[in-house]
Write a structure and sequence with these properties.
This protein is α/β, with parallel strands linked by helices. The protein has one domain (2-104): 3-Layer(aba) Sandwich (Rossmann fold), CATH 3.40.50. It has 5 helices and 5 strands. The protein has helices spanning 10-21, 33-42, 59-69, 84-93, 104-115, and strands at residues 2-6, 26-30, 47-51, 74-79, 96-99. Helix 2 runs parallel beside helix 3 (59-69).
């Protein structure tokens, strides 16, 4: 299973990738949508975990771009804002939606659910 993590909070996303690696989950990370798109061109990912709010290209738009190129990819949204609007939109367009700070075990559980 390959995971793509995308969040503009570099310390958070790099730590998530490292901690997923400790659980034998291959996770690459990007700090912006542009880098994530380049990464997704060179590798197939099963699940993309995307921050809803990022500069330039947010998670919803990135999801649309990735799913056009990789229709089988599953998505999980993260948000530090937790607005009702974000929740409704994110829940409708992804397999799951988590509020930051996230519990890593919950994320692993949601990733496993998404790929089944």
């Amino acid at each position: 299973m390959r995971i793509l993590l995308v969040d503009d909070e570099v310390e958070l996303v790099s730590a998530m990738a490292e901690r997923l690696g400790f659980r034998d989950i291959e996770a690459d990370w990007a700090a912006n949508a542009e880098d994530a798109l380049v990464m997704a061109e060179g590798k197939a990912y099963d699940v993309a975990v995307l921050d809803m709010k990022m500069p330039r290209i947010g998670g919803l738009e990135l999801r649309r771009m990735l799913s056009e190129r990789h229709p089988a990819m599953k998505f999980i949204f993260l948000s530090g804002h937790g607005s009702e609007s974000d929740f409704k939109t994110g829940s409708a367009e992804a397999e799951n939606y988590l509020i930051k700070p996230i519990n890593l075990e919950s994320l692993v559980e949601k990733i496993n659910e998404a790929v089944k």
